[in-house]
Amino acid sequence: MTKRNGQPQFDLFEPAPPPPPRQRGGIPRHVPTAESKLKVREMQAAGETQEAIARALGIGTSTLAKYYFPSVVSNPPMGRRRHAPTPARRDVVRRAIRIGLTQAQVARLLGITVPTLRLHYRDEMLG
Predict the structure, then answer these.
(1) Among the ranges given (1-5, 53-57, 62-66), the one the predictor scored with the smallest mean pLDDT
(2) Does 65 share its domain with 91?
(3) For 26-46, how does the pLDDT look when each residue is reduced to its tens digit (9 = 90+)?
(4) Is residue 66 one of the residues assigned to a domain?
(5) Sign of dihedral through CA atoms 13, 23, 31, 26?
């Protein structure tokens, strides 16, 4: 680009000037300090909720989770865990059906859905 008579002149064969660097706006990035980590541990030991801890630090709960509880954030659970019947659970189902609980009550007792109960415990519910 050349200037002629105070006005910029563009050459079609010259590459365009690079755009100016983008400025990052908004709230500054949170930087955890040793003091803030200690405060989080103390509040957690005192039984405070994550919402209360985040409020005390002046950050959001997602920021709290990202910087102070990374194992939860880096390995989020993917959907529901597959149900695995155990001999103890099979025995619970047998006894519950024997005393007259409904399938919905038995499923709620085990923390599963009725279709999962029917799928995994068919033999126990029949006899």
Answers:
(1) 1-5
(2) no
(3) 778 899 998 998 999 899 888
(4) yes
(5) negative
How many domains does the chain fold into?
2
Residue 20 lies in a domain: no
Contact 127, 116 (CB under 8 A): no
- Rounded CA-CA distance 58/97 in Å is 52
Is 9 contained in some domain?
no
Task: Report the sign of the C-alpha dihedral through residues 122, 100, 112, 87, in that order.
Answer: negative
The range of the structural domain enclosing residue 98 comes to 87-126
Question: Which residues, listed in sequence order, are joined to residue 8 by a DSSP beta bridge?
Answer: 3
Rounded Cα gap, residues 121 and 126, in angstroms? 9
Tokens of 94: 């047998």
Considering the entire predicted model, what is its pTM? 0.40
